[in-house]
């Protein structure tokens, strides 16, 4: 196996507003950071700019790990490659029929547009039954004709999606052989190869997503690696997947759908890594960036991974991904009064261009960042703004005119209302990953990161009765740090679909063995040394007659039927507080995650010990009035010390109100809260009055 990187490792994450980079050199302890505006038209430019900004020597780097939003943005914005689909006769409309749900639960109607239009969804004769027995042989001549018809219509990628290929993939495999003789590229997606699951709608949508973004990701990765090679880089490029693992750039486009949500996943992996080192293994992650807020749940230092993610209505991507929930509330989220006279915050964002008003790049619509500036929580001199910036008086005038006047509020009151509305949306997202799934927020710490997360974290923790907030050393570049510390990971899902009382446990063990062997083989192909392999096993189960699945973790692959019954009943009761003893259970899927653990990295170097001051007074850089939401009076101004984080002494203790400022974020400590530090440079804020 290849040598472990002994030189510098770079993690770079492309967000909707900023591209963040961190370089860690394990040998020297050197840390380099960069935060530059994202170039969403060509993300490679932003990556290369960040490398230059940080002063990275490409020839001296051992490894670059990249989190990208290329596929996520393409799907959400529907900027996709022209893609065709060949499916079983009679089933071309599966992608459009869906699951008989509605975009709005209480709406009378709702429309959506499938990824592949009907004229590009062609049928051929073939049929397996659910047991994998051939009922109708594959019409090979018809398949060739369908492939040629799609090429004639300009398709760049194609999906082969047969009804019961999960039970017997022979027809899909043969169809791929035939198409490779006439298809001009490698962009051929087999539904069963990506997702060996029985549900044809979810399997088909996942395959359609994969095929339609595959050419885009392939071109982007080739362009990026060519630029890096031209700059002297000769090492491996790894790309983050949505499951929190990584895969070589040489292979990533084969399963492009797995890179959806890779950016948010990298932040969750950094949180799990940091939390484990700091002794906080149960975390709710809270990543507030410039465009949106992502939240996730971590138990025992293991993020929750789900293969039931729906990134928008009728868009289920059933490959394992870190279970991240997103709301449209970021620092750049625009606040406005709607036609009904109500205040709205997001989901529309000012983005990187023009950005919030306070960036001075032409923005004239009030945002969350502008509200924080107006309330004294942000330092005007510390913003990522053009030279000269924008005066606070100008921001105040915009708030008074756009929000205050229609709402009957002063500018400060309007800014406070914007913050309250944003916090309400973000608290709702946190409840979705905790309370709605049977987890009590009081049993977790809130891991706050992103450029704007620490500004709002203590208020959210207080509202949700979360006892403490953990703020990592470099909150604004945590997603990039996640790229550096993440492990290699491959996840597998295989449909079993057997009632529990007829399940052969030896068959289940054999499925797990095959999954484990494939995962270990894939990890062995990577040019990265690992320090060990972990295997996580679980099954998806349901009571017969139910639609939704419940994930049941297993300690080992060989498990007795009686044990499965007990584990499922316990998991079901924990989630729903209902016991259904008289209904038979069903095992639907067998899941296995094979994780290649990389070498540990020392995070203490993220805060330079030479920068620390001897006393807290020396770390104080200024004082200014800051508005806090006091429970008694509804809100008020406090004379507040502002500390520079790199200057904080070892063993410091800060009692709020206070502000801790650094290069990539600002931490707000409310009156009555108490903040201390640990060996890795994390700040732990104990929430005053938290239950």
From TrEMBL:
Residues 203-491 form the Hydantoinase A/oxoprolinase domain. Residues 10-181 form the Hydantoinase/oxoprolinase N-terminal domain. It comes from the Bacteria. Residues 532-678 form the Acetophenone carboxylase-like C-terminal domain. Pfam families: Hydant_A_C (PF19278), Hydant_A_N (PF05378), Hydantoinase_A (PF01968). PANTHER family: 5-OXOPROLINASE RELATED (PTHR11365), HYPOTHETICAL 5-OXOPROLINASE (EUROFUNG)-RELATED (PTHR11365:SF23). This is Hydantoinase/oxoprolinase family protein. It comes from Pseudodonghicola flavimaris.
């Amino acid at each position: 196996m290849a040598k472990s990187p002994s030189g510098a490792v770079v993690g770079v994450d492309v967000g909707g507003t900023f591209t963040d980079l961190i370089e860690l050199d394990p040998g020297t302890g050197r840390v380099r950071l960069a935060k530059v505006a994202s170039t969403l038209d060509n993300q490679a430019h932003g990556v290369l700019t960040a490398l230059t900004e940080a002063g990275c020597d490409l020839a001296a780097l051992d490894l670059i790990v990249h989190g990208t939003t290329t596929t996520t943005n393409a799907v959400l914005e529907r900027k996709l490659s022209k893609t065709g689909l060949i499916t079983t006769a009679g089933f071309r409309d599966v992608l459009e029929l869906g699951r008989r749900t509605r975009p709005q639960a209480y709406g009378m109607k709702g429309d959506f547009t499938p990824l592949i239009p009907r004229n590009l969804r062609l049928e051929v004769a073939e049929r397996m039954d659910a047991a994998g027995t051939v009922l109708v042989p594959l019409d090979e001549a018809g398949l060739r004709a369908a492939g040629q018809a799609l090429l004639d219509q300009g398709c760049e990628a194609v999906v082969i999606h047969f009804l019961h290929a999960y039970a017997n993939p022979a027809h899909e495999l043969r169809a791929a052989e035939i198409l490779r003789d006439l298809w001009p590229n490698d962009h051929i997606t087999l539904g069963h190869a990506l997702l060996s699951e029985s549900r044809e709608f979810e399997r088909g949508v996942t395959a359609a997503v994969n095929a339609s973004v595959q050419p885009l990701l392939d071109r982007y990765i080739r362009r990026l690696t060519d630029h890096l090679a031209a700059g002297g880089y000769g090492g491996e490029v790894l790309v983050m997947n949505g499951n929190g693992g990584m895969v070589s750039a040489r292979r990533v486009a084969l399963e492009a759908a797995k890179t959806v949500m890779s950016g948010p996943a990298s932040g969750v992996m950094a949180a799990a890594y940091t939390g484990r080192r700091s002794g906080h293994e149960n975390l709710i992650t809270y990543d507030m960036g410039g465009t949106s807020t992502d939240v996730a749940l971590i138990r025992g230092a293991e993020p929750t991974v789900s293969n039931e993610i729906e990134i928008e209505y009728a868009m289920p991507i059933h490959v394992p991904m870190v279970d991240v929930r997103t709301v449209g509330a970021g620092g750049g989220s625009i606040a406005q009064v709607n036609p009904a006279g109500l205040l709205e915050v997001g989901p529309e964002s000012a983005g990187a261009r023009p950005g919030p008003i306070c960036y001075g790049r032409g923005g004239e619509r009030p945002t969350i960042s502008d509200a924080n500036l107006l309330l004294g929580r942000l330092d005007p001199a510390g913003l990522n703004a053009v030279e000269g910036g924008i005066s606070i008086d100008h921001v105040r005038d915009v708030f008074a005119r756009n929000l205050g006047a229609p709402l009957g509020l002063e500018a400060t009151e309007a800014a406070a209302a914007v913050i309250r509305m944003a916090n309400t949306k973000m608290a709702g997202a946190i409840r979705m990953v905790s309370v709605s799934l049977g987890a009590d927020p009081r049993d977790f710490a809130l891991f706050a990161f992103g450029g704007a997360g620490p500004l709002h974290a203590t208020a959210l923790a207080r509202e949700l009765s979360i006892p403490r907030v953990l703020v990592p050393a470099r909150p604004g570049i945590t997603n990039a740090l996640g790229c550096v510390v993440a492990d290699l990971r491959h996840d597998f899902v295989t449909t079993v679909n057997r009632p529990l009382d007829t399940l052969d446990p030896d068959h289940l063990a054999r499925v797990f063995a095959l999954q484990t062997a494939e995962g270990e083989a894939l990890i062995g192909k990577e040019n990265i040394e690992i320090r060990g392999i972990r295997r996580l096993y679980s099954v998806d189960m349901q009571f017969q007659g139910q639609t939704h699945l419940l994930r049941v973790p297993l300690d080992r692959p060989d498990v007795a039927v009686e044990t499965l019954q007990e584990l499922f009943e316990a998991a079901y009761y924990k989630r729903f507080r209902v016991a259904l003893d008289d209904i038979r259970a069903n095992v639907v899927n067998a899941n296995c995650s094979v994780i290649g653990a990389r070498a540990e990295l020392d995070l203490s170097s993220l805060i330079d010990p030479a920068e620390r001051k001897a006393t807290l007074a020396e770390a104080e850089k200024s004082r200014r009035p800051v508005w806090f939401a006091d429970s008694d009076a509804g809100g008020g101004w406090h004379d507040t010390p502002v500390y520079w984080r790199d200057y904080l002494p070892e063993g410091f203790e800060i009692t709020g109100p206070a502000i801790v400022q650094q290069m990539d974020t600002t931490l707000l400590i409310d009156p009555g809260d108490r903040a201390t530090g640990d060996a890795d440079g994390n700040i732990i804020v104990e929430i005053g009055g938290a239950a």
